[in-house]
Design goal:
By secondary structure, the chain is mainly alpha-helical. The protein has 4 helices and no strands.
């Protein structure tokens, strides 16, 4: 698996679990201390998830 594939898989899992739990992009972003556009861009693949984003513990 490449780094790009891993980033895509991670973003897809975030989106899937966010949707399963009924949490909006805005809500998860606010809970994690990120801008809502970051979550949107990350989930759509326009940007790669950062290590900082992956490391934030959350109970969303």
């Amino acid at each position: 698996m490449t780094v790009v594939q891993a980033a895509e898989n991670f973003a897809a899992e975030i989106a899937r679990w966010r949707e399963v739990r009924g949490v909006s992009k805005k809500s998860i972003a606010e809970r994690m201390g990120f801008h809502p556009s970051y979550v949107s861009h990350m989930e759509s693949g326009r940007i790669k998830p950062t290590e900082d984003f992956a490391a934030v513990p959350t109970r969303c």
